[in-house]
Amino acid sequence: MATLLYRLGRFAFRRRRLVALVWAVLLAAAAAAAFLAPPAASGQFSIPGTQAQQAFDLLDRRFPGSNADGATARVVFQARGDRKITDPAARAEVHKALAELQALPKVQAVTDPYRAKAISPDASIAYIQVSYRVPSIELSEADRDALQEAVHKARGGGLTVEVGGDALSAAPEGGATEAIGVAVAAVVLLVTFGSLIAAGLPLLTALVGIGVAVAAVTALSAPLELDDTTPILATMIGLAVGIDYALFIVSRHRAELAEGRDAAEAAGRATGTAGSAVVFAGLTVVIALAGLAVVGIPLLTKMGLAAAAAVVVAVLVALTLIPALLGFAGDKVLPRSRRAKGARPEGDGLGARWARLVLRFPVPVLLVTVAALGVIAIPAADMRLGLPDDGSQPASTTQRRAYDLLSKGFGPGFNGPLVTVVDAAGAKDPQGAAARVAQQISGMPNVAAVLPPAFNRAGDTAMITVIPASGPADDRTEKLVRAIRGTAAEVKAATGARVLVTGQTAVAIDMSQKLDDALIPYLALVVGLAFLLLILVFRSLPVPLKAALGFLLSVLASLGAVVAVFQWGWLKDPLGVEVTGPVMSMMPIFLVGVVFGLAMDYEVFLVTRIREACVHGEDARQAVVTGFAHSARVVTAAAIIMISVFAGFIGFSDPMVKMIGFGLAIAVLFDAFAVRMTIVPAVLALLGKAAWWLPRRLDKVLPEVDVEGEKLNRPAPAAPQPQRELQVSGV
Q: What is the pTM of this model?
């Protein structure tokens, strides 16, 4: 592989104008396609295989036009002081708001609180239920603005008016820290390279890669029915790996120049060696992201595949556009001082000194680091999973204030009602079956209220709304859902009716369970495939095993930190966390997928330089020092950049985005500095030559990929000498 990529790098360097033109054309074509593409029809969010989804599908069939999964909003009114919401003046203001809400686009139905008895027992609070014809993901910003405007007008009537519900779910707003993260990345690149040109190349090529990938995803959104949130993960991961891969190749190019090679040869060798590491690192990221399909949630699958496509583009950009731009840059990729004095190898840096320190005390370093990560991971044992709702919003938002008003007026369970569906198509007495189910639920613990069954026109399906006494994220509510579902077999045997439980609270419970069940198979698939890939790269069994175990340790520590901050509330004030509660259901599997790919980037780039030194004749301990001397600085820079970029998401207003940003940033911190920069050299020092052990039979079966570029250092075979014709005289 190294030889093939070496030739590709030299070709891109020599034909740099052609390569740059091709990428410019691709970027322009993708942008034009995205601009001309029809708007994406937001796909319907579904969780196949769950009871909540089965109930939604049944309601759509049996209650045609009901749009069971349609967006909802609750406009909550509170009378101030001693006034009552039932006073004539307050009633007039509520009815005025009711008329405004009925005129909103895409609204299917609006309930009158006075007819629906949606008034609190003390007559201080009432709410209007607004039902939309489409799911929340299909509402535009104009639709949400219209809802907010109607609420704003209602506030002028002397009532406190707030609005909540998933109809307001929109893209979260970022904060200043996001821009700070990008600025930090630029500064780190400049300090690492000491050259504006060298620092700018990774940023430029990463933006080109993101531009092509995201524009292509946008252009394909309509035909492939991609959700408009799909490009988010593609942008995040594309930026991360795009900078990393370019950083690796530019750094290796500078090292080759320092060895005295000409620019074309340096670009070829950088692409052949660091480029090989980029290819295999990219493959691990693609495996991790594409493997999200194992979960069985279409939205997560699409996001993973889109991000995987962005990674493929980033690899192609690194292997072709980077050598081409290096051709344009010439010796300007070097600092001015080194250009004037001539290229020369750099002396031992901090990386080499750190490696020597770890090699002197490998056992204490290993034990202390593992113990520290283990202690940080302890809170993960108490992790509770759930989906965000209005109760997890900051107290300054109207959604949170509406949530609190409803809890105050109607009880905490009112914000998470359960919809029990009685499929009585096979029952002899549908009315009796529904009444039996309602009576059973009324006698269960933690039930605040059970509304009478509401039948469809055919009379074969009933909806029973159950109000828990506890809030949506409370463990007691989950127990109630399981208790109701536990009666299904008994009801089926006695009446022939089927009982299903759905609603947003049940969806959250089912999704958490589905993600929890998928975590082990996902880990087995991703880690297993990557383990096989790393065996091929390193031609070793201990090194891939160490890489996988180190990754699991860093992920557990990261989840422990997330639980400590967002569930337990440690350090919540400095991080701006206003509300603590369950960890987002997708967080563990999302963290595993993203961090695994980035962790393997650092593992491949760091350990390939160590193996390269071994292949070229150095002993095991010296190879570790040599590998760190060449790669520790660039791996450190890449990690700091990623930490800065991910930490920028902590500044978002949405608590779930804040959680994702913190989790990714802390995971990269643990994996890059505790695992790759500390545990890796300690373990390699203890294993010595045994680190590169591979059974002979397996060694013979595995193909030779030459990631280290050993063939590039072999002398070229001598050119055959032309044979001289023998002239024999006298014949």
A: 0.80
